[in-house]
Write a structure and sequence with these properties.
By secondary structure, the protein is an all-alpha fold. Helices cover 60% and strands 0% of the residues. The protein has 34 helices and no strands.
Length: 745
């Protein structure tokens, strides 16, 4: 057996994400080896999924010439140079990649080194494009590098363990290349462990049946049909009809496996223990067999097959078939709603996203762990760009006690599929903290601060809160100060007001130092353009601080927003100015004098042409709404089923948290407790991840109750991946599923 044939028979030894091996089997205990980690594709050739890859496999996006010097690889056409420059600037530019591959194949048909370079680099960024793995293997086969072909296929099936299509291509290659039936059968059996129960697995089963029919090994053909009939897959009726036809045209002695033949022989020996009974039964069976052979030409060709034995033989498989059909009737609606079971950079529609959630709900309730894992892996091919499904998978595996699978899914999400999305790393930080790995949690936050989305307010708040929980408030203060200093160096920073507001609030709640908190807000007014959200925060804060109130100091800032000059920049909207005016009047009603109240009301009537009494009408529900309700209105109610595809921008607008300020002289809040459970992981590169970043809804004009922390959303803080030319992806318009855990902690 040659090296490549041995590799096919035994499987590739290098597995992604540590020790996960795609050749592992599924145990009957309900736990699967952690190699059950990658996605599946659709039926037929219209698919496009593939490997999930690993962080260590990623290749830096450099033009071939930059790495290989002045060898054969370094010669690039002008078009290749242009396309390489595009993908170097934006490694997620899918169309540029496909154009580059086509150009390279056209120019360098005989230059396998250049072809390898472009495929390796592309598949590191888009490992789910299974069709390109097949093309890559075909290039290696064209130059006669059989070991390389096997290596490519092994990389593919380890990455895309649950892709029916890639297994079909691999098995077809083995049939056409190797003569040893055992080698080919072992490959088929490897494939069936992972995708044999896939609803769209018919192409693989058909290929296996076709191969065994060529070998004329009818007992193996029957064994394949028996396995098929146990599973609710597509075309089950056809398989049962074909099985019955085979059983009626071949002798049972050819169809039974060695184990079945041994069992029949044992039963025959036992029947000889009572000769009289067995003789009578034999005469009866012989008479029935003679009659049947006259009536059925099929049974006549089946030799000495006993009709009763045949009936019993078929009945066993028919019972399997009926049971599988019953389960198929429960899932067929979900399966038919899956319009795109393969990966593509374009977003899925909202109906299909919702269908995946509903399907997962159903399978999880069914309670079969293997089915749960395999459906998640299928889902994460089509939905690979959606963090919410990665999060759901991680949490599901954690709940089931399968931490190896949870960690593996989290690693794939953070290191490969949604690695440029801040929300996945924020989830990873929470997950790691919850499981006792504080170092990994800090590393996750630091990655967001330094690379993924510097200045992201949500990350700053969550990181500071974590440090407070860990008993390190000074580190939390230092974090706010560092980020504020960086934002002050930017021109017209849109997040600086919110950072100041959150820092002031955090300082007061943690240290109880009202003067420090006030100084932070005063500094904010000196360094940033006054805005409705910032001034609303300041007014609310002043309402419960000890006297004296700084009314005279605040009035010019409020009037600057309410009645801006003609040359003012970043003017608030009319609705915002009107709302701020009402809030200010209400503030003066509590703490001002009659003269200041009259001045503010006259100014309001002049600017907005309406009386304050008319505009201050609020429903009882709105006035008494709790902070939790306000938070739901401004943050938690946002759509979560949003794609984060290659070209997507993260519009995770961080709305101002509508959390209530404490009452006057309130004691500092106690840190939120977490329950560490697992040992620490040393490096962030090893941690898993996945979670959906909420997107702030458009602010809805409403006059919030003054007694609560302002619910008005700050302008959305948009995030663009750190690459040039990324185009936003249109989001689904339908309502999306809710989050699987609380956003703030």
């Amino acid at each position: 057996m040659g090296n490549s044939e041995a590799m096919v028979a035994q499987g590739y030894t290098s597995a992604p994400y540590g020790d996960y091996n795609a050749t592992a089997t599924v145990e009957s205990t309900g736990k699967e080896n952690a190699s059950l980690v990658n996605g599946t594709g659709p039926e037929g050739g219209s698919s496009a999924p593939v490997e999930n890859g690993k962080a260590s496999d990623e290749v830096a996006v450099t033009a071939p010439g930059a790495e290989h010097g002045h060898n054969a690889v370094s010669t690039l056409s002008p078009e290749e140079e242009r396309l390489w420059s595009i993908v170097r600037a934006n490694s997620l530019e899918f169309n540029a990649w496909t154009a580059l591959i086509e150009e390279t194949e056209r120019i360098a048909q005989e230059n396998i080194a250049k072809i390898r370079k472009v495929y390796d680099t592309f598949l590191a960024e888009f490992p789910l494009c299974y069709g390109y793995w097949k093309k890559y293997a075909d290039h290696e086969a064209r130059v006669g590098a059989m070991d390389k072909v096997v290596e490519v296929y092994e990389r593919a099936v380890q990455g895309v363990t649950y892709s029916v299509d890639i297994w079909v291509h691999y098995c077809t290659f083995a049939i056409n290349t190797y003569g040893d039936p055992d080698t080919i059968r072992r490959l088929f059996e490897r494939a069936l462990v992972y995708v044999g129960t896939d609803f769209l697995s018919s192409p693989l089963w058909d290929k296996y049946i076709e191969y065994e029919c060529m070998q004329q090994d009818w007992s193996r053909v029957t064994m394949i049909y028996t396995k098929i009939l146990e599973n609710p897959i597509q075309n089950l009726d056809r398989y049962f009809a074909n099985f019955k036809e085979l059983a009626e045209t071949r002798p049972l002695s050819e169809l039974r496996s060695a184990e079945e033949s041994a069992a029949v022989a044992a039963a025959s020996d036992a029947s000889k223990a009572s000769p009289s009974e067995s003789d009578g039964k034999a005469d009866e069976e012989k008479s029935q067999a003679d009659g049947s052979s006259e009536q059925s030409p099929k049974l006549k060709t089946a030799g000495s097959t006993d009709p009763e034995e045949l009936k019993k033989y078929i009945a066993i498989r028919e019972a399997m078939y009926i049971k599988a059909k019953e389960f198929e009737s429960k899932i067929i609606g979900f399966e038919m709603a899956i319009r795109r079971p393969y990966f593509h950079v374009r977003p899925l529609n909202a109906a299909e996203l919702e269908n995946w959630h509903n399907y997962l709900d159903f399978i999880e309730k069914d309670g079969d762990f293997n089915k749960v894992v395999k459906l998640y892996e299928r889902c994460l091919v089509a939905c690979a760009n959606y963090p919410e499904y990665w999060i759901r998978y991680v949490l599901s595996m954690e709940t089931s006690g399968s931490m190896d699978l949870a960690d593996n899914a989290l690693a794939r999400a953070t290191q490969v599929f949604v690695k440029r999305q801040p929300e996945i790393h924020l989830f990873a930080a929470r997950f790691k903290e919850q499981n006792g790995d504080i170092a990994a949690a800090r590393a996750a936050f630091q990655l967001v601060h330094s690379e993924i989305s510097p200045g992201l307010v949500e990350a700053v708040i969550k990181h500071a809160n974590m440090e407070h929980r860990q008993g390190k408030p000074e580190d939390a203060f230092a974090l706010y100060q560092q980020v504020i200093a960086l934002e002050k160096g930017k021109e017209n920073s849109t997040v600086l007001p919110l950072l100041y507001a959150q820092y002031s609030r955090f300082s007061y709640l943690v240290s109880g130092d009202a003067e420090k908190a006030r100084k932070i807000l005063v500094e904010a007014l000196d360094h940033v353009q006054p805005s409705k959200p910032l001034l609303e925060t300041v007014l609310h804060f002043e309402s419960f601080l000890p006297v004296p109130r700084q009314i005279d100091y605040l009035t010019p800032f409020v009037e600057k927003v309410i009645n801006p000059n003609s040359d003012a920049q970043n003017v608030a909207s009319s609705t915002e100015r009107e709302e701020l005016s009402l809030i200010y009047i209400e503030f003066l009603g509590l703490f001002g004098d009659v003269k200041s109240i009259k001045k503010a009301e006259d100014q309001h009537a002049k600017l907005f042409r309406r009386s304050t009494s008319e505009l201050r009408k609020r429903s009882v529900d709105e006035f008494l709404s709790s902070d939790r309700t306000k938070m739901a209105k401004t943050y938690n109610g946002t759509p979560l089923a949003q794609p984060v595809s290659a070209q997507a921008q993260w519009s995770g607008g961080y709305a101002a948290q509508p959390q209530a300020w404490p009452q006057a002289q309130a004691a500092p809040a106690q840190p939120q407790q977490w329950n560490p459970a697992y040992g620490q992981q040393a490096a962030y590169g090893a941690y898993p991840a996945g979670y959906t970043a909420p997107q702030a809804p458009a602010p809805v004009p409403q006059a919030a109750a003054y007694g609560a922390y302002p619910a008005q959303a700050y302008p959305a803080q948009s995030y663009a991946p750190p690459v040039a030319g990324a185009a936003p992806v249109q989001q689904p318009t339908a309502a999306a599923p809710q989050a699987y855990y609380n956003t703030y902690y």
